[in-house]
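sanity check this fold:
=====
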Amino acid sequence: MHALGHSLFIVLDAFVFIIISYHLRVNKSHVMCTSPHALNRWPYISDTATEAPQYYVFSIGMSIAAVAEFVFVIYYGVLLKRLTTTKRHRRVVLVAIVFGALSAIGLAFLAIYDTNRYAVLHWACGITFFVFSMISITSMFTVFANLVSSHPDLRTLSTSRLAKLVIVSFLWFCFIIYIPIGLPLAQYEQLPDGNWDYTSDISTNTMRTVTQFF
């Protein structure tokens, strides 16, 4: 139950601050949705937080989410490690903790270093966050699913295992479209003013922004 509460806090925190950042961006004079270079309906999340005041809203909100993720990964990892009985599974949990903690650090840095002024650093931190998060999530789920299968007293959690399987599968679907498929295909260009021009490939970039949001 504690794990569920921590997960919901991270998701809701990120969602609320992203929505606030997007709303502020749309209602300023440099509106993204009217820019000739913008993705009209689904902008990249990072593009909504490049200038004040939305930059501060986004960076603070994502930093809070990063700290919460860091704490959650360690808490849930230690909990799983106590329940595991094999060295192999303990190693998998350790992998999940390390990569999860590093992904949280990546999230904090990508929130602080915006995509306009620190494009390369922001990109590197974004890749770190998404890739390491998927490694951590998958490792955690693998151990959890094995525990439910091998311990009769935990089989009441079969519904939870199924729900987690659906969520992890959906995250992998979005991740594959966003990075392995979408990243090499998408075309974009950074303009002299720091903003990004996506007009040469609106469809692919929109595909990526939708999966990024989820």
